[in-house]
Specification:
Keywords: Plasmid. By secondary structure, the protein is of the alpha+beta class. It has a domain of 85 residues. It is 31% helix and 22% strand. It has three helices and five strands. It has a five-stranded antiparallel β-sheet, covered by helices on one side. Strand 3 and strand 4 form a beta hairpin. Helix 1 runs antiparallel to helix 2. The longest helix is centred in the middle third of the chain and has 18 residues.
Length: 127
Amino acid sequence: MAYFIKLTHSISAKNRLQEAALKLAYSLDDLQLESPDALKQFAEDRIMWLNRSFNRCTALRVTFQTSYRGAGYQLYISDLVTLSIYAIKGQFLAEPTASARVVERVNCEAAGPQLGLFVETLEPSHD
């Protein structure tokens, strides 16, 4: 099954570790993936590496859970960012335009009042 990643929440970075984590999250936004577990493992590995690289900053943690609606997953990087993972149900395909037929032209000025398309204004009184 295929999934879609959407960055649904983020706050501004307070230090270089958070800036790097935000860049990571933004790079994952709007991507498609095959396994949510692969994303979880990737995020955990990358955040662990960033925590070691910026060891003077407060360490970030990755939390992964099923969405409260049960239709997807949520990946949290501390309280900094939330990535939502949605299952792709299908693909939208537009019908061919060949089925469209030409409609007779309509005179808007003549049909407008009958269809309520125009707001009628009151004539100013000449007192």
